[in-house]
Amino acid sequence: MQELVKEQAGQKEAGNERAVEKMVWDEKVHGPRGILGWLLVPVIGMVLSMFFAVFQLFTKTIPALFTYSEVVRIETRSFREVYDSEWTTILIFDGVFYGALFIYISYVIIELMRERWIVPRLMIILYSANILSAIIRTVLLLTTVEAVSEELKQSYWSIAIAVVIGLVWIPYFKLSVRVENTFSKEITEGTLERS
Fold this sequence. Notes:
Blueprint: H1 2-21, H2 27-30, H3 40-65, E1 72-75, E2 80-83, H4 88-114, H5 119-143, H6 149-175, H7 177-183, H8 185-188
Antiparallel strand pairs: 1-2
Helix pairs in contact: 3-4, 4-5, 5-6
């Protein structure tokens, strides 16, 4: 008798597993899903940040670091800047940060396209690191004797912008139904099929 009950329970469990495997995603029932809507805004922001990081790295930071004079003058069509030896720490920080930012965003975009469950955490780390780097850069500027007031104002604005962006997008990645539906473990491991 116990074997019959176990066999019936096993058949019922197998039937439930097959039913779950064949479920089709219904947006009316399960909610919005996919990299659409407001979720596109951070994706566009990450792509733009990658281009900005590469631009900063190769047009300002690396040329300023690899010149052999005491005073470095960088002049292009869009800007003119003068650095001296006190700026070395800031330039090294910028170089490391922009290089790491490019690599990290590339990784996040790859995971985002795979719709992996870890993406919300990666995005929260990205926004937190953005705030932290703006604060560190401002502190480094404050310790530099030759810091220009315009550079400090820009640095304060970058902290404010990073904080506002973090205040908007960190809760979004924690609380959004679309983010939960797109990047949850159950869905990304294939228990529900897309329609």
